[in-house]
Design goal:
Elements lengths: L7 H12 L5 H5 L12 H8 L5 H10 E4 L4 E4 L5 E4 L1 H11 L6 H4 L1 E2 L7 E2 L5 E9 L1 H6 L7 H23 L2 E7 L4 E10 L1 E7 L2 H4 L3 H4 L11 E7 L2 E2 L18 E6 L10 H30 L3 H29 L1 H19 L2 H7 L2 H14 L1 H6 L8 H15 L13 H11 L7 H19 L4 H7 L4 H11 L5 H17 L3 H43 L12 E6 L3 E3 L2 E3 L2 E3 H10 L10 H5 L9 E6 L11 E3 L5 E8 L17 E5 H10 L4 H8 L14
Antiparallel strand pairs: 1-2, 1-6, 2-3, 3-10, 4-9, 5-9, 6-8, 7-8, 9-10, 10-11, 12-13, 12-18, 14-15, 16-17, 17-20, 18-19, 19-20
Helix pairs in contact: 8-23, 11-12, 11-15, 11-19, 15-23, 17-22, 17-23, 19-20, 19-21, 20-23, 26-27
């Protein structure tokens, strides 16, 4: 994974930062924001584009949009439960459905009949059906005189009650979401679908053409899409709300929207919090990812089957590394940090201009700075007294079992986050997944994680003593992974149903190891909540309310992996002394492959190469827009004013990585697969005309007994 180069374009971006105010009128006119559906940017859209979406339009888009439980976004695109997303969003399920004999990641997949559609082992899709403001109720749970820790626990207990009551009353998956860092709380109710089946995916090589070197760049030439179907009661879902397909796509300069689930942004954090990210979080996270990638590549070099097992995790970590490096480079640039300081000083001066604001909100920045100082002092034990850095499914299963059987015996309000009544169904769904687990790979990952913790913490650390007992990381990982039987979902179910007594009595070495380290993990979590998280939450909410006081609801909240609406236009941008075009075509795909003599990662799958003469090479392949997106938006539909689908988001350009902290309209671009390219590929490369017909609303795909396409 290459580090992001500090190009001339990047420096122009930073100069632009100095000229752009995020708080003034420029914000209202920029194509900026990941807006919640309760507070869409109506004024901005009317002022800039003369378009005001109706409530019916917004509801239709919301109910057509889906969230993937393993990360990413998508949308219903037919009345028969068909869902469009990215290949790289589907990658986890493709890996789990593959076998040594059938590698769907490498070779792709197409179910020509309904009977051939493959049920995903542990994928759930969520549709947001209802939103309710519960801010007053959550805030009212905090009584005068409570300490920050007590207030933190009171809010958590009230949130758990709200979610449980909602689940019991409606049967819907219910989540209370903190917006504006706790200034608002909203109850989101989702219709959750757990019978999701794979319908189509191209080969990874065409979905991710150009590989890691082209990742987060533009121009791009990728068929990064996949299709699933949702079933209910054993039958394809009758989708009342779905996005009709527009095969023409969007023209240059046309207004478009993105409806998706951006994972996280850090635009509203204080300077003290950004400094922690810059100095602690990013460098240590990047170091860990690089180490894991080295270990995984060594494992993959053992042979074809180890390479297949490690492929999805290598892909994910390479993607994360390039993203984190781009974000970290932004934070390390003095121009960006200076602009953030200026914004914070300006905002604090506005707050201080009114005594009542200063009295209520003015202390928040100092409180956060003190919490960040405490965190930085304890960052090493907080980060490395951990088992989740191993990326091991087996370790996660073991820890979940240990905690589940303990937590469910407690009153709901007193449980660890993640184990409240409203969350237990999702916990069981993940824990009992029949997806394959590779113990040899898990052994390598656990050994690497324990070695890293040993090096950072030293042999006398309590976590290291509990985890290693004076032995080497390799020997402990070998004993645990070769001795455990937790690869068997039936055993995990038996332990779950047997409760605390069954888990305590189990001789499984990994389970007993998880029981030894769990008290230390809990201790660190308690310290973090008391000394850092509770302060961040309380002070962050003050700053959020201060923003409302100063700016009203003209600002949008940071991303929280909840449904958001972004808008912008299809538009190229200045790049490397020239212009990046608004779209690419199939001509460019084959030109790039020829330019590199089809050497990896610029080679094409045999099927694509053999059938290239069938294609209309002038068909648009990818395009860019000014829509504001971030990680989690992968798979989001791109929509025109008529509510029609014109593309699917799959990436941002290299200039957009700094968008975690600041949006720059001149160069920030969202990259999408064009709707026409998907149809062209389905009909002429994959001989999937019935599927293309379903997307275009022509003759629906036949039921399970449909005949095969040629």
């Amino acid at each position: 994974m290459e580090m992001r180069r500090r190009s001339s374009t990047f420096h122009r971006v930073l100069l632009l930062i100095l000229a752009v105010s995020l708080w003034g009128r420029a914000l209202a006119r920029a194509d900026e924001g990941m807006w919640t559906f309760d507070n869409p940017p109506l004024a901005q859209l009317k002022e800039r584009y003369g378009f005001t979406p109706t409530r019916e339009w917004l509801d239709h888009i919301r109910l057509s949009s889906v969230r993937f439980s393993d990360g990413g976004s998508g949308a219903f695109v037919s009345p028969h439960g068909l869902v469009l997303t990215n290949h790289h969003v589907a990658l986890t399920q493709l890996q789990k459905l593959s076998t040594p004999e059938r590698d769907y990641v490498r070779d792709g997949f197409y179910a020509r009949t309904r009977r051939e559609e493959l049920k995903c082992p542990d994928l759930a899709l969520d549709v947001l059906v209802h939103m309710e403001d519960v801010t007053a109720r959550v805030h009212a749970s905090v009584r005068p005189g409570m300490s920050e820790r007590e207030a933190f626990e009171a809010r958590r207990a009230e949130i758990a009650r709200i979610e449980r009551e909602s689940r019991e009353a409606t049967g819907l998956h219910s989540e209370v979401v903190a917006l504006y860092h706790g200034a608002e709380y909203w109850l989101y109710r989702y219709k959750r679908y757990t019978d999701v089946r794979l319908v189509f995916a191209p080969e990874q090589q065409i979905a991710f053409f150009g590989g890691d070197p082209d990742n987060f760049t533009y121009p791009r030439y990728c068929l990064d899409f996949a299709l699933f179907r949702v079933y209910e009661n054993g039958q394809p879902l009758r989708s009342e709300h779905y996005l009709r397909w527009n095969s023409r796509g969007a023209a240059e300069g046309e207004l478009v929207f993105v409806s998706g689930h951006p994972g996280r942004t850090s635009r509203l954090l204080t300077v003290a919090q950004l400094e922690t990210l810059r100095d602690v979080t990013y460098p240590r996270t990047i170091k860990t990812i690089r180490h894991r990638l080295q270990v995984l590549r060594e494992y993959a070099a053992r042979g074809p089957e180890p390479a297949r097992q490690a492929a999805e995790l290598i892909f994910s970590l390479e993607n994360a590394l390039k993203a984190y490096l781009g974000e970290w480079n932004g934070l390390r640039d003095p121009a960006l940090m200076e602009r953030k300081r200026q914004q914070e000083e300006e905002f604090r001066a506005r707050v201080a201009s009114r005594p009542e604001w200063q009295a209520e909100y003015g202390s928040a920045w100092a409180e956060i700075a003190a919490a960040e100082a405490r965190y930085r002092e304890q960052a090493v034990p907080l980060l490395y007294r951990s088992v989740r850095r191993s990326f091991s499914d087996l370790v996660e299963h073991a820890l979940t079992l240990v905690r589940y059987v303990t937590e469910v015996k407690k009153p709901d309000a007193e449980r660890l986050e993640g184990f409240h009544d409203a969350q237990l169904e999702a916990v069981r769904f993940r824990l009992l997944s029949p997806a394959p687990i590779f113990p040899e790979l898990e052994e390598v990952l656990l050994a690497a994680s324990l070695q890293e913790s040993l090096e950072e913490l030293g042999p006398d650390d309590p976590f290291i003593r509990a985890a290693l007992g004076g032995r080497s990381p390799e020997s402990v990982a070998r004993e645990l992974m070769r001795g455990t039987r937790l690869t068997d979902p039936a055993l995990r179910r038996a332990l779950l149903e047997g409760g605390e007594e069954a888990v305590a009595a189990s001789p499984d070495p990994l389970l007993q190891w998880a029981r030894r380290v769990d008290p230390i993990l809990r201790q660190m979590q308690r310290w973090f909540e008391e000394q850092v998280a509770s302060v961040r939450e309380a002070a962050g909410a003050k700053i959020g309310r201060a923003r409302f006081a100063v700016f009203g609801k003209s600002v949008y909240p940071d991303a929280t992996f909840t449904l958001r609406l972004s808008y912008g236009t299809v538009r190229g941008y200045p790049m490397n002394g020239t212009q990046a075009p608004p779209k690419t075509t199939f001509y460019g795909l084959f030109d790039r492959a020829h330019g590199f003599d089809q050497k990896p990662p610029y080679h094409l799958p045999p099927r694509v190469w053999a059938r290239r003469n069938r294609l209309d090479l002038s068909t648009p392949l990818n395009f860019v827009s000014t829509c504001d997106i971030t990680g989690g938006n992968s798979g989001s539909p791109v929509i025109n004013r008529q509510g029609e689908l014109v593309g699917v988001i799959f990436d941002g350009n290299i200039e957009s990585l700094v968008g975690n902290f600041v949006y720059i309209e001149e160069t920030n671009r969202a990259v999408a697969v064009h709707s026409a390219a998907i149809l062209e590929a389905l009909r002429k490369l994959y001989m999937a005309a019935p599927l293309a017909d379903e997307l275009e609303g022509k003759t629906p795909r036949r039921a399970a007994d449909a005949g095969r396409a040629r």
